[in-house]
Design goal:
The chain is 0% helix and 55% strand. By secondary structure, the protein is an all-beta fold. Strands 1-2-3-4-5-6-7-8-9-10-11 form an 11-stranded antiparallel sheet, with no helix packed on it.
C-alpha cells in the first residue's frame, strides 16, 4: 500500500499492483464523505462504495458494480427520506432495466422493469 497522499488538504490511500497500476483508492469524495474504489487492470472502475455528495440523495449510501467496459451495471443504494433500500440493474448503455426496492412512508415493496415501450411497469401493483 502506498503512503497516504495529500491533495488539496485531504488525504487518501491508494494501492498499486505489481505492474504499478492503481488497484484501489480509499479517501474523501467531493464533500468529504468516504469513498472506496477498486480498479481493473485497464484502470477502469470495478467497484465503488460511498455516499452521494449532492442533491436530494446527499449522504445516502451507494454500492456500484461496473462491467468490464466501465459502465455501471448493478447499483445498491438508499433512497428517499426513509433511506429505503433499492437495487437497480442497468443495461449496457446505463438505462435502468429492473428496479427492486421499498418506497413510501410504509416502505411498500416494488419490482419495476422497463418495458419495450420505455415505460416502467410495477409487477407488484395492487
Amino acid at each position: 500500500m502506498a503512503d497516504p497522499i495529500k491533495a488539496a488538504g485531504r488525504s487518501a490511500l491508494e494501492a498499486f499492483g505489481v505492474a504499478g497500476k492503481r488497484v484501489a483508492y480509499i479517501g474523501p469524495g467531493n464533500d468529504d464523505q468516504g469513498m472506496f474504489f477498486l480498479f481493473n487492470p485497464q484502470g477502469g472502475v470495478e467497484i465503488q462504495m460511498g455516499a452521494y455528495d449532492s442533491g436530494s440523495e446527499k449522504g445516502q449510501s451507494i454500492l456500484g458494480l461496473h462491467g468490464r467496459n466501465g459502465s455501471l451495471r448493478l447499483l445498491f443504494r438508499l433512497h428517499g427520506s426513509n433511506d429505503s433500500p433499492v437495487m437497480v440493474m442497468k443495461d449496457k448503455v446505463g438505462d435502468d432495466k429492473l428496479v427492486i426496492g421499498l418506497e413510501g412512508i410504509n416502505e411498500s415493496p416494488y419490482i419495476k422493469y422497463r418495458n419495450s415501450k420505455g415505460g416502467m411497469v410495477n409487477l407488484l401493483q395492487e
